[in-house]
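Recall from the previous lesson that a structure prediction takes nothing but the amino acid sequence as input. Here we apply that procedure to CpaF family protein from Nonomuraea marmarensis. The sequence below is the only information supplied.
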Amino acid sequence: MIDHSLVKRFRQEVGDRLAHQRRLDQANGLPAMTGEDERQFARALISQVLEEHARSEIGLGRTPPTVEEEEALAAGIHAALFGVGRLQPLLDDGEVENIDINGCDRVFVSYADGQESMHDPVAESDDELIELIQILAAYSGLSSRPFDTANPQLDLRLPDGSRLSAVMDVTVRPSVSIRRARLGKVFMSDLVGNGTISPDIGRFLSAVVTARKNVMIAGSTNAGKTTLLRALANEIPPSERLITVERALELGLDQFPELHPNVVAFEQRLPNSEGQGEISMAELVRRSLRMNPSRVIVGEVLGDEIVTMLNAMTQGNDGSLSTIHANSSMEVFNRISTYALQASERLPIDATHMLIAGAIDFVVFIEKRNDYHIGGTLRRYVSSIREVNGCDGRVLSSEVFIPGPDGAAVPHAPVSCLEELTAHGYTPGGW
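The prediction returns the following tokens.
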């Protein structure tokens, strides 16, 4: 068992020495250390601090830590400085899917196979949990994000790509939810392999992307929308310039230059404590259009940016991708209309439907199901693909893939742009 009180104490010591070295470098006109240099220097400082601790224990007539204990302490200190403290082992576990924290000692973990369990505390107190989140908020993302009584909500992307959402003061105890990015570099073949899509749908979606059709991915929370979006994005040729727009950096397409060498990732900026400096999603989508994009990818539509995004899709930026929360492929159109009503443009329903019909080519609906009757296996699968055909007072669409006997999508109706998709490598399997 690691002594977390020692980890906390040594983290403070190493952090102080690291900050002192930064100030010295600045005073001497030396360039700032890179992230990797800082980590290497921190490792040397950790060894130094642990060696001093061992000598102190011997001087007091006590047994110093063993080699194994020192290694555990060193890993804990490094995780506390650059990782997520006691959460690090959970994030290092490839089978962990979601982590829900209702106060420092109420930790619930969901695994990829659908099982759930309660975990050990991740902090000594709720105050320490808040401090951990504040440290993460200061160093994750493109800009520091406040997390305090004046800013009790926080969304950010952790270094490993996981999504963290935290609240305080609006709940009895601080609450944190972490959704793991288990599949960072994911391809259509991976989704075929794990049963999310059939080989036929894989070929269909690949052709849809290369044919530069605009796609909206819909589903419930944690259904796998972002993972599917990443797989679709990886079908885009590397020669194209991509601009991603997100509330908190999550897609991470810029982290794989061998797949996407020309990527600009935009992240929404929240206002500071004086209420200044905010840059909204709608503004970022607007800005992205001035930066010569081949495609604009909006990580998740949750508000008034929808009108700007739909306008972008109708202005020559074909091949755009996005995700949205919805309960069915048909409900997507009502959800978009609701967001459009909230936008500054205040678009009426019929105008929104015309905009949708001119902007979106396909809606892909993905869902998850926990099949308790077969041992609690958690399944994620595409169950419906809908093609937008036009507008006649409402959005006209046809469901080209419908749920089959087991829920997974099967061919249903011919797609109107079949000839175009065929030119991009798709051969229909069941129409």
